[in-house]
Amino acid sequence: MAHTASRVTFVPLSLLALALLTGVRAQPALPSPAVPTLPPLSAQITTQPIGDSIFPALGQAGLDVLNYDLDLTVDRPGTSELRGTAVLTIDATRALPVLSLDFSGPAVLEVNWDGLAAPFRQDEAAGKLTVQPPRPLLPGTRATVMVRFAGQVGRRPDPDLPLNVGWQAVPAEGQRAGANFTLSEPDGTRTFLPVNDHPSDPATFTTRITVPAGYTAAASGVQRSEEDAPNGGHTLTFEQAQPIPTYALAIHVGRFERVDSPAVPVGKGGSEVLRRDYFPSGIPAGTRDAYTSTGEILKVLAEWFGPFPFSAYGSAIVTPRVPALETATLSTMPVTSSNVRVLVHETAHQWFGDRVTLADWSGVWLNEGFATYAELLWAQAQGEDGEDMVRGWYTRAGRSGTRPLIATTERQLFDTTAYIRGALALHAVRLTVDDTAFKAYLRGWVSGFSARPVTTADLLIYTRSTLGAGAEAALRLWVDSPELPPLPAR
Ligand code: TRP
Ligand code: ZN
């Protein structure tokens, strides 16, 4: 991707940092012309993005972020103000003379590379933070990059939904306290954190959040500590020890109650999965009812999909009218979507999307089709035959127009085809075999493809190798046909 140098704005502090680094005394009024600056981005072949077919500018090819260690402070909950540091532990799969992160968030104040000040450039228009390492990052070596930032988060309007993806601000209103939470699919995380913002580079997260007196916080992973902070505030630390895509990171700040429930033995080898949900104050009492089914949902889905992939699971309920999102270990559930069917859907995404991650956004049906299919598996576990649901899907898929499953535009990402035709495609596969084989197929997909991101081609090859040519042909028809294939029948 070529970036125009004219859109690049230099951050004076980077010159200051460089001056300190090189031992040149900083002269803020007259920066020395001898101070080297970064060459224009267009001259940097190595700032090549990942090459996503829907979002061609996202990410950096060859960059592998292993861990994000976040230290965030929310001084005024309910506003768009955020400050903190992100420490990225990175590796490379090719030599990287420069680091290019996705970031359109608050102003960057300082960048350190392995503890030393590093020159950087924040390009607001391109949504990139470029950092010059002391020497190229070579494959197999690690570096630690610290980015300190403060200010207003960026805005990234969703192409379909009436919201900006990323850091949500819920202003205080009447009795209700201000709140913030993340809602980032597909590329909203870059509005508040410097990230390699693509699901093909999942990473672990340590999230430390400091909130003022009277507020609390939650995030993806397991809570490790809660400590006092100045002026009666608190600092809470969460550890997400399994890699997750950047968009799946949940962070919540507000006034809410944490409700712990008995752990559920659905982890690997029957290990316990911690159960906690977060309910904001002032929501209708009935909102909580759906969440009493969470343990049972985990058991039913783990039977079909294999062990739950993370050490904790639950929901964080939010008050704005937004769609639910499958944030890792902690689904983000609006009050208005607090029903069991949506909860089943988001819970299934913990396996499909959060654990098995996408190699390219064009394959998003691999998330949405599987999560929608889980709604049928749940209904059947409740004793329904599911015929109505399948017929209903078919009617809906036909009514709204259809397309091959691989998305070609941003607007197609979360359309009826991705969800409903995607689910019907899996049903078509199921009907070519018996349920024992289908269960092994679903479990094998999760266990075999957790280590690297997936494409539709991977699923087709996997289908042939596990269930045979008939199953693959059935899937291929649903993947490729411009028309809606006939309703699958056993
Ligand atoms: N993945 C979500 C679901 O089906 C839907 C979704 C896509 C979404 N983009 C979003 C939700 C942005 C909230 C915000 O479960
Ligand atoms: Zn979904």
From TrEMBL:
Gene3D superfamilies: Neutral Protease Domain 2, tricorn interacting facor f3 domain. One of its GO terms (biological process) is proteolysis. It is an enzyme of class 3 (hydrolase). Zn(2+) binds at residues 345, 349, 368. Its cofactor is Zn(2+). Keywords: Aminopeptidase, Cytoplasm, Hydrolase, Metal-binding, Metalloprotease, Protease, Signal, Zinc. It is found in: Cytoplasm. Residues 329-461 form the Peptidase M1 membrane alanine aminopeptidase domain. Its EC number is 3.4.11.2. GO terms for molecular function: alanyl aminopeptidase activity; metallopeptidase activity; zinc ion binding. One of its GO terms (cellular component) is cytoplasm. It catalyses: Release of an N-terminal amino acid, Xaa-|-Yaa- from a peptide, amide or arylamide. Xaa is preferably Ala, but may be most amino acids including Pro (slow action). When a terminal hydrophobic residue is followed by a prolyl residue, the two may be released as an intact Xaa-Pro dipeptide. Residues 67-247 form the Aminopeptidase N-like N-terminal domain. InterPro entries: Aminopeptidase_N-like_N (IPR045357), Aminopeptidase_N-like_N_sf (IPR042097), M1_LTA4H (IPR034015), Peptidase_M1 (IPR001930), Peptidase_M1_dom (IPR014782), Peptidase_M4/M1_CTD_sf (IPR027268). Binds 1 zinc ion per subunit. Residues 1-26 form the signal peptide. Belongs to the peptidase M1 family. This is Aminopeptidase N. It comes from Deinococcus humi.
